[in-house]
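Run log, item B.
One chain of 181 residues. Sequence copied directly from the ordering sheet:
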Amino acid sequence: MLYISDTIQEISQTNIKTTEKKCEGRGIPIQDNFLYTLSFADDQVVTAHDEENLCYMLRKLEKEYTKNGLEINLENTEYLTTEQESVRNLERDDDRESTGTEKFKYLGFILSRNGITEPDIISRLAQIRTYIKQMNGVLWNRQITRNTKKRIYNTLVRSIMTYRAENWVINKRNRSKITAS
């Protein structure tokens, strides 16, 4: 049995290989290679050194998807740059544009244009507060031992907080927010 997601993944892999040849030497240089795309299921990130290369790679990627009956939803396409001082839209060659943004979420991690991780930390803290509100009855139940409550906290709350935390840049203010939770 072949699932739709498997078919999309297969098409995506074929598109990536074809696009890889066409986009050779473009993207972000990392050691001897160039990173130009990150893919997960139906989410894709395209990276480039400049707008010209980005527009070129988007054009090639869209062409490969169209060959296979897929289309890129431009309403859900966001553009994030670290170069400009203000956020603006990306004007593409085909008179279409991608919406500029300060930050976006990819695979549960909030990427921001200035490289700070505070939006992700704030998001995690909000998730923890919501979870603790939901677990309030359990955490204050006198019939549940303190040891069991600690295990629940360590297993669930800490895992929410520390997921992808290795990417965070921690300053004093963030450290105190995290410690308080």
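Observations after the first pass:
- The beta strands are 28-30, 33-35, 37-40, 43-46, 78-79, 90-91, 97-100, 103-106, 109-112.
- Residues 1-5 have pLDDT under 50 and may be disordered.
Flagged for discussion on Thursday.
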